[in-house]
Amino acid sequence: MADPVLLITGASSGIGAATARLAADAGFRVVLAARRTDVLDELAAELGGPSRALAVGCDVNEWDQQQALVAAALEAYGQLDVAWANAGFGATRGFLEESPEHWRDMVLTNVYGAALTVRAAYEALVASRGQLVLTGSVAGRVALPGSLYSCTKWAVSAMGEAARQELGPKGVRVLVIEPGMVRTPFFEREPEGALEADDVGRAVLWGITQPRHVDVNEILLRPHGQSS
After folding, report:
1. Which of 59, 70, 157, 192 is within CB 3.0–4.6 Å of 140 for a Cys-Cys bond?
2. CA 196 to chain centre
C-alpha cells in the first residue's frame, strides 16, 4: 500500500520518536501522539508537516482523547493502517518503593492506556485490514524481583495474544515488540551496552512491512550479552 498511515502513542521521545523518523523515511505517513505537544509539533514539522506527519496531544488514559486521536488520523489521511500502543513508563523495583500514586499512573498508562488504544483503533484497523502493535518488554517474559512494571508488561503480552485471537479472523495482524534495555529517557541512568532506540524501530518496521500473509506476533530483542 502506498503511503500507509502509522499511529504511535508515546511518540515524543525514545523508541516512539526514533521509529517515527524511520517510518517517515520509509514512506509512511505518521500520526504522533503524546501529552507533550510542543515536542510533537517540532517532530511533525521535521517529518514533513501536516501532509506527512500529524501531531495530536493525547493522554492515553482518557478515552475521549483516544477517540479524538483516531478521528484526527482518519480526518487527515482517510485511513489507519498501523496503530501502535507505545506509551508507557516504569518504576523503581521493590514493593516498598515509589508511591501508590506512581504505581496507579503506571498501571493505568501501561495497561489501561494500551487497551484504550486497541479499542479506539479497532474499527479503523478492521476497515484497512491493518496491524496493531503493542510495546511489551523482556520484563513481560521474565518476572523481575519486586517489579510492578514487569507485571504490567506481562499484562501487555497477554493483551497482544488476546487481541490477536479476536482481531485475526477480522484480517488484522498483531505484533508485540519486546525490547530489553534500550538507551532512552526511560532510564534515569543511561545503561551501558544497551540497544539504541533505532534498533527497536527497525525491528518494528520489519514486523509491519511483511507480506500480508505473514503474521509476526512477537519480536524479542536484547542487547548482546543481556542475561535476562
Report:
1. 157
2. 16
> Is-contact 70 123, C-beta < 8 A?
no
pLDDT digits (tens, 9 = 90+) for 86-123: 999 999 999 999 999 999 999 999 999 999 999 999 99
- pLDDT tens, position by position, 145-202: 999 999 999 999 999 999 999 999 999 999 999 999 888 765 556 666 789 999 999 9
For the chain, give every domain's residue range. Answer: 5-221
> Which of the 8 DSSP states describes residue 93?
S
State CA 130 to chain mean position distance.
15
Q: Can you read off the three cell numbers belonging to residue 163?
A: 487481541
Catalytic residues: 149
Residue ranges of E strands in 58-190: 82-85, 131-135, 173-179, 182-183
The model carries a pTM of: 0.93
